Amino acid sequence: MDFEHIPVLLEECLEGLAIRPDGIYVDGTAGGAGHSSQIARRLTTGRLLALDKDPDALKIASQRLAPYPAASVHQTDFADLANVLDREGIEQVDGILLDLGVSSHQLDTPERGFSYSADAPLDMRMSQSGLSAADVVNTWAPEDLLRILREYGEERFASRIVHNIVEAREKAPLTSTSQLVDIIYASIPAKARAEGGHPAKRTFQAIRIAVNGELDSLTRCLNTAFERLAPGGRFVIITFHSLEDRIVKQSFAGYCKGCTCPPDFPVCVCGNKPKAKLINRKPIVASAEELEHNRRSKSAKLRIIEKL
């Protein structure tokens, strides 16, 4: 299986994790093991748990991590990270990495249905099981389609697109990415189609997020994973769009805030202390050199906190 994977912001992630040879680390989005293999090679008596819900990714990650005794591979959603740690008898870890979004392999494998640039079945399932993109566009109520296109895709022509999807599916089910692209293209005015990249980008993003429950998984993980960090442990997250980044930024800010008293109180009475500190106040982005070699790093933002 050809599985190209260029890890985004690799050196920045490794530095952000502050890896110790005897530490315990989790890569919640192993993919092609680009980040995982570099973490594992820095361990001696430590451990790395590499998680992914994509069966294709797990096969490749298992092969690429085989030379490293410190690494183990687990097929699961990163939202269930705490359950994996419980099964492995691990109470706390020294670092957690999440590289959110779609992998290069998923985008570049047409039959997975993630790309709007090739004709393929409407799929988009990272786990290759459960709800598919075809299920969403053919069975969801118009108001639900409208909601995800507006919330997850921030698509200003959502009403037109949904109207045309519903009209088309009444004649015959939509089964391919090209059918959906044609509907989107016809729904967006010519002037708007010339702006901001491919006209199908926002709709495909919205449907993919819905199919895979991406924002729900991220929220669940943020609510539970931080508690499994040891004092001094690092939480390192790469996001690729504003919805993810907003959730991470707000969650990290909450851990770092401390006092929750109203601003007009003269002294703190709540007694709440910060649980973490920000390692980088502004998100780290790809260098010009990385952008030249990996165009998919363009929208990447890296945020890091350390548990106190």
* Average pLDDT number: 95
From the coordinates shown, what is the CATH architecture of the largest domain?
3-Layer(aba) Sandwich
Number of strands: 7
What is the CATH topology descriptor of the largest domain? Rossmann fold
Class from helix and strand fractions: alpha/beta
- Please tell me how large the radius of gyration is: 21 Å
Poorly predicted regions are none
Task: Describe the protein in words.
- The chain is α/β, with parallel strands linked by helices and 308 residues long.
- It has 2 domains: 10-105 and 215-307, Vaccinia Virus protein VP39 (Rossmann fold, 3-Layer(aba) Sandwich); 112-212, DNA polymerase, domain 1.
- Helices cover 42% and strands 14% of the residues.
- A 7-stranded mixed sheet has the order 3-2-1-4-5-7-6, with helices on both faces.
- Helix 2 (34-40) links the parallel strand 1 and strand 2 (47-52).
- Helix 7 (142-151) packs antiparallel against helix 8 (158-169), helix 8 (158-169) packs across helix 9 (177-187) and helix 12 (214-225) runs parallel beside helix 13 (242-257).
- The longest helix is centred in the C-terminal third of the chain and has 16 residues, at 242-257.
- It is globular and about 60 Å long.
- The N and C termini lie far apart (43 Å).
- The mean pLDDT is 95.
